[in-house]
Amino acid sequence: MAKKHGHHGGAWKVAYADFVTAMMALFLVLWLTSQDEKIKEAVQRSFNHPFASPIPGASGIIPTKDVQSPKSERGNFDSPAALELKLLRKLAADFLKTLPHNPESPDEEAVKLDYMPEGIRITVFNRANKPIFQSDSASFTEYGQWVFTTLAWQLSRYSTSFLIELEGHTEVGHTPKSEDYGNWELSSDFANTARRKLLEHGIAEAQIRKVAGYADTQPMPDRQGTDGSNRRVSVVVKVKNDKDPTKTK
What we know:
Strand order of the largest sheet: 1-2-5-3-4
CATH architecture of the largest domain: 2-Layer Sandwich
Number of domains: 2
Radius of gyration: 25 Å
Strand content: 5-15%
Oligomer: single chain
Distance between the termini: 76 Å
């Protein structure tokens, strides 16, 4: 008579797998509870938006080896400020992807992105073919409303800790609307119109740190002062570092 084999010879493998899974879960919980608030916020954002990795070059919240600089004193992970900076740059790149793009005419792009050590500068141009402001006015066109609404949503959906400065600019030679409403007033209104739109769509009042109009005093470095591309709004977004005296607890 043939000998019957038992049906439960692999039960120990299932039990061992459960044990390993439980130990891994315990490790993750202990690691999370030991991190500071910025790391915990980044983990929370990762779960809230699972398809958007907050760190370029990583598959999740834990950075890969080639993006671990600078390292924090608490472990082999990026500092909170570095994590926020990488997240901010990814958000800005995502924002650019939502805009119309014409590779044959880079000089006609509606938005320009410049990286800075402490954050990014997003310059939105008032192009003749895609104006963001109505003619000789600081009121948004429909396109301008859409651009700044989209920008506000991209910034606010992940973090409310970014600090924002708004700058309005005009071109040299612009004819003032009236004697008491010149380029200084117009450029200041550009910046304030952008500020109000950001506040309407998720940006907190405390995040706004400066609103300024520069008239025609700061033309684009690669353009003549009279070039119409100098009519623009710059949104400077900065990461609040650990030594910032205004940092909230």
